[in-house]
Design brief:
Layout lengths: L4 E5 L4 E5 L19 H7 L9 E8 L5 E3 L7 E4 L3 H11 L3 E6 L19 H12 L4 E6 L21 H18 L3 E4 L6 H11 L6 E8 L6 H6 L21 H12 L4 E5 L5 H11 L3 E5 L1 H12 L5 H15 L3 E4 L2 H10 L1
Parallel strand pairs: 3-5, 3-6, 3-12, 6-7, 7-8, 8-9, 9-10, 10-11, 11-12
Antiparallel strand pairs: 1-2, 4-5
Amino acid sequence: MEQVFHRFAGGVGRAKPCRDMSAASYPALRLRRTRAAAWSRALVAETVLTPADLIWPLFVTEGKGVEEPIATLPGVSRWSVDRLAERAREARDLGIPCLALFPNTPPALRTDDAREALNPDNLICRAVRALKQAAPELGVLTDVALDPYTAHGHDGIVDTSGYVLNDVTSAILADQALVQAEAGADIIAPSDMMDGRVGAIRSALEQAGHVNVQIMAYAAKYASAFYGPFRDAVGSRGLLKGDKKSYQMDPANGEEALREVALDLAEGADTVMVKPGLPYLDIIRRVKERFEVPVFAYQVSGEYAMIEAAAAAGAGDRDALVLETLMAFKRAGCAGVLSYHAAYAARLLARR
């Protein structure tokens, strides 16, 4: 029987059965009591995941009536602007409060100076206007970085040696943010990791009267191996000359992440993001505890692809893997999570 316990008698090292259930011989608290039934587990759950915790990233492409599956992101597609209204209504009905947009800019419009990023009628600006018309109650987050628009795949303007120029890039990013805000973006999310760009963007937004447009800074964005499928989705794989280690963070560093967050908050960021997600749960927790601000995580394309590969191979249950990983972000301290599984997870949560 489980209730048969042993204690040493007489100091001789020989154990004998003991059925004495007094407080002196047995702990009064059994932690399994509150785990025994589903209703009880729900009552004492320390962390709760809902669709309102999710941001759904969507990839946008040119054309009409287009749904273009992405091979390295099974279940994820690029959508033409005219198909975004369906996604917006789907998100609204599922209780997802915000959509994030990323463009697959046509190769002919990618240039060394990323001039298409400043076109007020570019793919992203048209997509923002379409979403705000279809579901104005939803938030729209836009990515501010130049890599979807450059011919070389970097997040900024490069010099003759291939080095990304910080201040020149930051000035362009501020103009890009203004173009997106004018289109109706609710959250500007600079993902480039240039020093000082949050301050430049905040100043530009304030001067243009966009005082309520939020900035969600990719404050701790690591030079990660988990971004491959995303680069396929936005059409930048194969364009990149070199790597991004001179501006994205070294995965070995944690203290540096706190310094990055402190700078972005001081420059006017409303919220901050850690990217990638699961490999950096320790950073999420440290940022939340240090700064006590809303922290978001991006469950990036490589993380999504690993879950899908595990499910396809029969190595894990997709539903359980999706919800457990999203719960891990919340438990670590996230206010919300960008996830390609957002709509899928919202449906799972609705069935609970």
